[in-house]
Amino acid sequence: MKTHLIIIALLLFGNVCLAQENWQDAIFLKNGSVVRGTIVEQVPNKSIKIQLSNGETYQFEMDKIEKMSKERVNSTEKTKQKNAKPLILDNPDYKRTKYHHMIRMGMSFTPGFMPKHSTGNSYISGDLEYYLANHLSIISSSFFWVNSSTPKAEEDLILQGGKGAVLKMNHQNYSGFRIHILKDKSFDPFIGFQPGFAISQTSDNYNDKDYATYDGTSPLKRHNTNVSFNPMASIDVGFNFYAVKYFHLFVNGRYVMSRHLGGATPYSLNEFMGSFGLGINANFWNKRKKKIRQ
After folding, report:
1. Pairwise CA distance, residues 138 & 194, whole Å
2. How far is residue 183's CA from residue 186's CA, in Å, rounded to a whole number?
3. Nearest Cα to 42, choosing from 20, 65, 22, 21?
4. CA 276, CA 253: separation in Å to the nearest integer?
5. Are 117 and 149 in contact (CB under 8 A)?
6. Would you say residue 185 has pLDDT above 90?
7. Within 10 A of 53 (CB to CB), how many other CB atoms are there?
8. Domains and their CATH numbers in the chain
9. Does the global pTM surpass 0.85?
10. Digit-coded pLDDT (tens) for 142-166
11. Stretch 197-209: mean pLDDT, rounded?
């Protein structure tokens, strides 16, 4: 009987040692950090203290913790954890996603289409964006007009005597904000609003003597109108996809609302635009990390 008790005690002791060797506690913080080790003290609804394999001990308030779990760990991983450098965590007093305080830049070729004039435009575009918070960023976007393509039938109608205008220039610049729908995901969909201005010019057909009373028979001439600054507003939707540390893919569509104010012939600048390409990004939050001690 005494021998049986000794065997049972040895088996229980072995199981406990095996469990301690193959399992560890994991604490997932709300700021995105994960701490792994052995929980050595727990105050209900208040705090938890965890000891790492290298002997360091950390204490966290319960309201900073997202969840806790048990994880299996092999001997190789445990040795790596034991020899690891002192744990560096993001400041737990500030909840953020990994994109918070990030700057991103992108440049692309951007086609546009003006449905009222059946005119296609080509732009070279660039944007600079800064993430203020989990779901909010500010952005500035610029579009350098390259050329326009008006269907020949409409251009012939204008040249043959109908009143009208042809776009000669349409550079645009916007500043505004974007709302980012998801939190801490590689796939980053957004919707934004950006007011701005356009530097535009058109070429008008009109009669030099009296444009208002043009009878359709007098010779018409084409004249470039004055270059004008026109207020604009735009709504854009799209997504960024962060696949690697410093680069991302971006796709977005934009609808622009404005009107050229410098010519005799009213000219709508309302336009659908689309951009896609490869951008670069950098997160400066990493330079503001702080070491958490017991």
Report:
1. 9
2. 9
3. 65
4. 9
5. no
6. no
7. 18
8. 2-85 (2.30.30.100), 102-284 (2.40.160.20)
9. no
10. 999 999 987 764 555 555 555 567 8
11. 75
